[in-house]
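Researcher: Batch entry, complex prediction.
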Amino acid sequence: MSSQIAAVELTKAYRLLNHGPTVLVSARHEGCVNVMAAAWACPLDFNPPKVTVVLDKSSKTRELIEQSGMFVVQVPTVAQLNLTQAVGTLSAYEVPDKLAQCGVEWQAIPGQDQPFVRGCSAWLLCRLLPEPHNQQQYDLFIGEVVGAWADTRVFAGGRWHFERAQPELRSIHHVAGGHFYATGEALSASSAVAVGQD
Amino acid sequence: MSSQIAAVELTKAYRLLNHGPTVLVSARHEGCVNVMAAAWACPLDFNPPKVTVVLDKSSKTRELIEQSGMFVVQVPTVAQLNLTQAVGTLSAYEVPDKLAQCGVEWQAIPGQDQPFVRGCSAWLLCRLLPEPHNQQQYDLFIGEVVGAWADTRVFAGGRWHFERAQPELRSIHHVAGGHFYATGEALSASSAVAVGQD
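Model: Structure tokens for the complex:
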């Protein structure tokens, strides 16, 4: 494992997705592996951490998740803009060498056998919590986060530090049609407490 | 209605949330009204557009949504950073004049009677799609978007235009503890097609 990658405390794993980046979702089953892009991924709980992700019925990655019960949600960077767009556009059903065409490489994480995309800034290993009604009716999948890692150049001490890292390591936020915004300026509210209540 | 506010085509309403901003959720029931902040809101479908939002059981806004079956998801701006933090921190159960303390004002939209927070950049009017299991088990609420509007200074022609508007109109993305990132630089993938497939 790269010395730049460190485990993230599970109770802080939600912070890896809290700013709403577009993510890559990967899964493997019986030697078959795939990666897709998903703008519709979101934290669902703090502890144990859970996430939601919307996976269209046409996607090969969805099939692999349904078969294996495991998946990885990872946070791509500005440097991976074209890779993100490409894995979100090409279908593995139509393009058998999709991953090679898109330039996807794997990042080994000791003790883990799931497919982690190299070059991302954070990885959340998820166990599918089967909810057949949500999956069929809404294409909505729920995962419990059972492991989390981040690139310490941008996430350390439980916080993102985009403002002091290279701009190429910032997250990306898809709007539509290949148009994204990078994560921007850091801002702090004048009375800083938790958001998410009322 | 302000001349800066225009209706957004429902099939493009997902774009108002696709970049993953922290939102404000408001609801009204029998003369009682409230607003909370939510970082965990996400598009769920294109057409008809749907959204998910996570609402803690301790929140007054959740109670109003359960009672009225309607809510508004709106996108606050950099100028509303402290308002967002404040409505996400104070509880209406403990602070009866929460909205006045937080400086919340309402934006009239002709023909609509739901509470739209003034000064936001976009508003999605939602009808609750009751899913008792998701609501109880995961605090997860699903809404169908039945109306959408945006401030034309930042969203026009079906697209955000943060790059040509005042920085104070950018969206905000909460990480934790009152620390946010603004929406940043616009980026386009070299082969621009839709993300969200594989």
